[in-house]
Write a structure and sequence with these properties.
The protein is mostly beta strands. 5% of the residues lie in helices and 37% in strands.
Length: 98
C-alpha cells in the first residue's frame, strides 16, 4: 500500500492475497490495504500469497463475461504481482524468488 500510494498508483482492493496450505486458496485473507499492526498475526508455519495489484488510473475493476478476465473500468494499464511467503522461526522466507 505504501509503495502504491507513493507512486500514485490505483490500488485494487476487490482482490486480495490468501493463505496457502493443503489447498491453494485458504484463510487468512491478505488484503492489499490496511492499518499496520492489525490483521492476522504472521506466525511461524503460516504460508501466504501476497498479491498486490496496481493500476495507472482508477482502481475500479470489471470482470468479463468469461468469468476469469478482469480489466480496469477506466481502461488504464494494470499489473498483478505475487509472492508466496513462509513464516519461519528466522523470519519470513520468500519462496517464489529464483
Amino acid at each position: 500500500e505504501v509503495v502504491g500510494k507513493g507512486q500514485k498508483y490505483g490500488i485494487v482492493t476487490r482482490y486480495c492475497g490468501h493463505g496457502v496450505g493443503r489447498r491453494l486458496h485458504e484463510e487468512p485473507s491478505v488484503p492489499n490495504v490496511g492499518v499496520p499492526g492489525t490483521g492476522v498475526p504472521l506466525v511461524t508455519g503460516l504460508v501466504i500469497a501476497i498479491e498486490p495489484m496496481f493500476t495507472l488510473g482508477r482502481a475500479d475493476t470489471v470482470e468479463l463475461k468469461d468469468g476469469w478476465t478482469v480489466k480496469t473500468r477506466d481502461g488504464s494499464l494494470a499489473a498483478h504481482f505475487e509472492h508466496t511467503v513462509a513464516m519461519t522461526d528466522d523470519g519470513p522466507s520468500i519462496l517464489t524468488l529464483p
